[in-house]
Amino acid sequence: MENSRRSFLKGSLTLGAASLITPSVALATRPRVDDGFKFAVGPYLQTNFNNSMTILWLTNNIGAGWVEYGEAPDQLNQKAFGKAELGLIAANSKLNMITLSNLKPGTKYYYKIVSKEIKSFQPYKLVYGDTISSEIQQFVNTDVNKAEISFLMMNDIHDRPESIPHLMGLVGNEKQDFIFFNGDIFDYQTDEKQIIDHMLQPCVDNFARHTPFVYVRGNHETRGKFARDFPRYYMHVGHAAFTLGPVRFVILDTGEDKEDSHPVYANIVNFDDYRAQQAEWLKTEIESKAFRKAPFRIVLMHIPPRFSGDAHGPKQCTELFEPLLNKGKVDLVLSGHTHRHMVHQPDKNLNHYPLIIGGGPKAGTRTITKIKADANKVVVSMLDDSGKEVGAYTAMKK
Ligand SMILES: [Fe+2]
Known about the structure:
alpha+beta, Purple Acid Phosphatase, chain A, domain 2, 6-stranded mixed β-sheet, 21 strands
């Protein structure tokens, strides 16, 4: 009896109607929860700097949200809504992503998130339910012209949410400009709950209400049935570039490690083209004024551009990206993927740049990497999960 019930449940989960509808519809129309309208997680901050800050959160039911903000806690006199597309402001969703723009450099902002439940959405009658708001939070809009910057890198957490507070706890309370997640924070993507429980909630609890994070996918975030929904929960998880203080940051999404034709990908991936497109983009980036005029150029990518074996993905990263990293005179590359922390010195015949690889994911092999940069030097210090420095590098201005 129990066995047949189990196999029935398994069958209905596999063949349920939800699998037949498109992901965005599935997310937006999930049944209402009846224990009151609440925030499910957040707020969490993400940014590419340039005087803007993106605030994200999730509610337990569908709603419409906005952010109230200002320069004093008792003067939240500005209001920002989600992006409007074709005249429609983003709403009717549990997920909220709102960007505050034209912020003043180096200024502290106070904000709260507000959501209004949508109880029913008829063509000519929308019924709102409860309105909820968060406590007042704060962040400093980083001055992109500041002389010294600092950030932390975590990588290869692999569904171990407790690693986030543990590693963050090793570095003290010094203010960071951002936290960088260099891929493989998950083993594979299953559902929204996994994203909340294994990443967003520990980030919110530890730093993300006041310090933004930047994130790039590893190979594991491309796997699983929710991989195509997963990017919606973030400002971006692919390639990007931005300038902060003396550094031009370039982020590459290195994709999968096996060949696209490998049976585990079931003929529905095309990372070869994706990496080739990024190489084209990188060619343009290294010619850009922002890249060339920056005192330092730091590249962040999950699969290292070399020294991670001879699987198809790593080999393609070497072939496509390394010549450009050398040509662009990149000062530092930060990676993960190998699960063994390592500092590779520059080599005039191979990688002209220092390559620092963080470890993980098991206790005893995890690392957090601290990076500080000013106009003269970039200083890297990698700590293991006992707090001991296991890697260090200083890149001087050439
Ligand atoms: Fe990886």
